[in-house]
From TrEMBL:
Record's keyword terms, sorted: Lyase
Protein name, per record: FumA C-terminus/TtdB family hydratase beta subunit
Signal peptide stretch: none
Keyword Transport belongs to the record: no
Family stated for the protein in its record: Belongs to the class-I fumarase family.
This protein's record includes keyword Calcium: no
Molecular function GO terms recorded: hydro-lyase activity
Classification of source organism: Archaea, Promethearchaeati, Promethearchaeota, Promethearchaeia, Promethearchaeales
Membrane-spanning parts: none
Length: 184
């Protein structure tokens, strides 16, 4: 029986680390991540497909992570933001966009729930990490700060750039070697 490994990964990470991860491994990540649901994915793909430049904040995501999440956000009295809750949303809605997102943003980790289909995990390379549904309230404990937000007019569907520390446990549910917990 395979022993699952626990990995603490600092972002940005190397592609070699991602290629070494296997389904069932548990990871915790620290560093900059971005949230993105349907509207963010559509907006990014539309900009890329039309040869337009993405906002500067997205340059900081190279070898980092995107989290399929629509947070509950509080605006504090000083104008800064606080994430109150941030559970994962169903990732399957992002299936048509994920290859373009990962390739153009150089994303190594996709975080969500429910799995994904049609993504070229081996060619990107990237892995799919599952965060438990129903655990949104504890996400705020991992967020050190909200760094910035793009497309704030999208509300919770905006792209929130978050500095996280020991965010997890995240389960490697789809790896770069074809391992997929959803297809067993």
């Amino acid at each position: 029986m395979k022993e699952n490994r626990i990995n603490h990964i600092i972002l940005p990470a190397s592609k070699e680390i991602v290629k070494d991860l296997k389904i069932g491994d548990i990871i915790y990540i620290s560093g900059l991540i971005c949230t993105g649901r349907d509207q963010v994915h559509k907006k990014i793909v539309n900009l890329v497909n039309n040869g337009r430049q993405l906002p500067k904040n997205f340059e900081n995501l190279k070898n980092s992570a995107i989290y399929h999440m629509g947070p509950i956000v509080k605006t504090k009295s000083d104008g800064s933001f606080q994430i109150i809750s941030g559970g994962p949303t169903t990732s399957a809605r992002m299936n048509p966009f994920q290859n373009t997102i990962c390739k153009n943003l150089n994303i190594l980790f996709v975080i969500g729930k429910g799995g994904m289909q049609g993504v070229n995990w081996d060619k990107l390379p990237a892995v799919y990490l599952q965060f438990p549904g129903g655990a949104g309230a504890i996400v705020s404990k991992f967020i050190k700060k909200v760094v910035s937000v793009e497309w704030k007019e999208l509300g919770p569907e905006a792209a929130w750039f978050l500095e996280v520390e020991n965010f997890g446990p995240l389960l490697v549910a789809i790896d770069t070697q074809g391992g997929n917990l959803y297809m067993r």
